[in-house]
Specification:
Elements (H helix, E strand, L loop, with lengths): L2 H25 L1 H7 L5 H22 L6
């Protein structure tokens, strides 16, 4: 697996984990508050959007050189 492919796989898993964390805080606010993670809700959502934007930018930038 090349470094480009690993980067894409890592980005996908990072987006999924961060989105799951945000969803957990959004749908279970009592549990998130008990765990002390409630203040991170907005940051997790913004990070998910930033990772998604970076992933799209990276794919567009590297689309010509990625060999499948």
């Amino acid at each position: 697996m090349s470094l480009k492919h690993f980067h894409i796989v890592f980005l996908v898993f990072a987006i999924l984990c961060d989105a799951g964390f945000w969803l957990w805080m959004h749908f279970m606010p009592e549990d998130a508050a008990a765990a002390g993670a409630a203040p991170l809700k907005n940051y997790a959502g913004l990070l998910c959007l930033a990772l998604l934007a970076y992933g799209v930018w990276y794919m567009v930038k590297k689309m010509r050189t990625i060999i499948v």
